[in-house]
Amino acid sequence: MSTGFESEDVRAVYATVVQDSVPGKWETRRITVRLEECFSTGGDCASARGCVTVTYPEGVRLYSSDKVIFYGKFNDFGFKADSYRLVSRERVTEARSRILDLFENLFFSQRNDETVLSMMLILGYSECEDFYLTELARSSGTSYVLALSGMHLSLFSIIIRRIISPFAGKRGARILSLACIAFYVVLIGPKPSIIRAFILSSVFTFFRFKHYYDALYITFLIQSVIFPGTVSSLSSIYSYLSLLGIMTLSSVIKNAFDEIVILPDYIVSGACASIAALLFTCPLSYMVFGYYQLSVILTGSLISFFIYLYMIVSFIPPLDGIRSLLFIVIEKLMRLGSAFPVSRSPTPFILLVAAVLLIVILSGILKTIRTGQCGISTTQALKISAGCWIRSLLA
Question: Mean pLDDT over all residues of the chain?
């Protein structure tokens, strides 16, 4: 960030809103803006560059691309505005704000904990700054389930494809679902993880790759060129690191577990995906926050599953009772995860890495010993036999 005057002499800034405002503490709102001009105490004007966080009094909700003048002064946390004036708002943004208000009044008119969670999962924001489930998610290491990301877009995409595919075919359904997702992304605003998820979905729709992480590299390049301000955010870095871990290591770890234990795929897959993501994100969490939470290995996939169900029933008012029950389940699982102590030293992470390496090496040895003429190990054969036996019982 740079201003034409010394920061202590600046008394007003003219800026473009980068991300929609969110509720702050003590009847304020927080927003990220891109500086255009600054004004001194004497009324002189000078250019300004860079992004800064602005805290302004509760009032009008500001949206991305709004042009605003904030009156106040810089502090250690950004710019604290005592007042502000909305200079201009684009027609698209005005239409977007009206659609969001309509959607909010239609589905989320009641203000309770269940509604606040539904708004966070579907609209990407809530008007409750101190929502206790947010703190539970943070302490249990599952904050990613509350922040709009590819996990949420994939649910919308699957539902849209299932509805459209009988009429438009698989490829037509993919393209139409991508168009619907594009409208949704524009509606909720340019959040870094959502932009990444949409670009990645577009790349997968139109191209084929031998390795999934090749698509991730191309997505990063596209996002860096078109939306450079979103790539450097902490949420975006976490998003890319976790996906890179899942795409490169998840299948390796799962195949290793399959050689050692006999468990349902949906349990092993969820745990292995969590482990793979942690291997890439724990060092960043430790450097930024000084701690990390490993209990997500046990609770992450379960919470994600119930979050999916919660999002679906949020659109069906007659199922409010089921939504309340799911809310209780999600809360209990988060409390279970947060009951585990956080790790404040690198030792647990090093032990996790060592355990994964040991499992992979041990599985390779066992596979070499137990592989028969059919080309599969005895553990895999047992899983196939068990699956056939269960299906025969249910038939």
Answer: 83
66/19 Cα distance (integer angstroms): 10
CA distance 104 to 109: 6
Do 352 and 296 form a contact (C-beta atoms < 8 A)? no
**Which pLDDT value is given to residue 155?**
79
Planar angle of CA 113, 198, 314, nearest 5 degrees: 25
Walk me through the domains of the chain, giving residue ranges and CATH numbers.
2-89 (2.40.50.120), 113-394 (no CATH)
Q: What is the pLDDT of residues 217-239, one digit of tens each?
A: 899 999 888 888 778 778 888 88
pLDDT of residue 276: 92
Strands 67-75 and 45-49: unpaired
In terms of Cα–Cα distance, which of 338, 376, 392 is closest to 135? 338
362 CB-near residues (< 8 Å, 6+ apart): 256, 260
Residue 71: predicted pLDDT: 92
Annotate 346-367 with b (16+ C-beta within 10 A) or e (fewer). Answer: eebbeebeeebeebbeebeebb
* pLDDT tens for each residue of 178-196: 888 888 888 887 788 888 8
Count CA within 13 A, CB hemisphere, residue 178.
Answer: 16
Taking the C-alpha atoms of residue 227 and residue 225, their distance in angstroms, rounded to an integer, is 6
pLDDT tens figures, 229-278: 778 778 888 889 998 999 899 989 988 888 887 777 777 888 898 999 99
Residue 211 is which amino acid?
A: H
Nearest partner of 273 among 292, 249, 256, judged by Cα: 249
Compute the distance between CA of residue 391 and CA of residue 92 in angstroms, rounded to an integer. 53
